Amino acid sequence: MKLAYAEYGAGEPLVLIMGLGAPGAAWEPHTAAWSRSFRCLVADNRGAGGSAAPPGPYTTADMADDYAELIGGLGLGPVRVAGISMGGAIAQELALHHPELVSRLVLVASWARCDAHTAVIFQTLPRIWDRPEAATALLQWLIWTPAWFAAHRHELLAERTAPDRMSCAAFSAQAAACVSHDALDRLGGIRVPTLVTAGDADLFVPPRLSREIAESIPGAILEVFSGAGHTHHWEQLDRFNAIVEEWLR
């Protein structure tokens, strides 16, 4: 299916894949920096933003095919690809199913196969998604560290009543893709340079799952952000942007 997308900057193409429940626009703190060096392609995953929301459940392989259609339709490839959380799972499948389209990978706070802890989170969130304040509060507790939350309390509280939320059906369909993703035994087939990043205080996707990815992809490098959580890419924004930009050059 066709994805809604936007482009920022010029240079070699960089495809950015966002995580569960968020539109591609959430990449803005990163594209503001990376668009000076790359042509950043930011899409809304199926079910999010301006993209269609077909009936679920979705799979990460389905969503990888969406990105393959986007990249091929633009006459691009191989391209650099970065994915956050669920986006990292989609990026794994893109590199495995469409290796001719991927030249380098960045996998942020992701997993190759859910453990029991993470699966329960993905199964629970859809059950309360129809209660916006409760669902967003739980998600914020999982992805931000206490220090970040304390420093941005009013901003985060305001997000709990934001009107532009994904529908319950679409969120559930994406969450199902998170639970069913299982590429662990296939990651040895990824043959492109890969950077894996993790926050050592991540409650949502524990850093051991990122370590598992790095240990399974030949030659992959793991960069750990000390004192940061699932959203280490925001909590330590300048460091993250600089490390990823250097890696992608």
From TrEMBL:
GO terms for molecular function: hydrolase activity. The keyword Hydrolase applies. Keywords: Hydrolase. Transmembrane segments: none annotated. The keyword Ribosomal protein does not apply. Pfam families: Abhydrolase_1 (PF00561). Residues 13-235 form the AB hydrolase-1 domain. This is Hydrolase. It comes from Streptomyces iranensis.
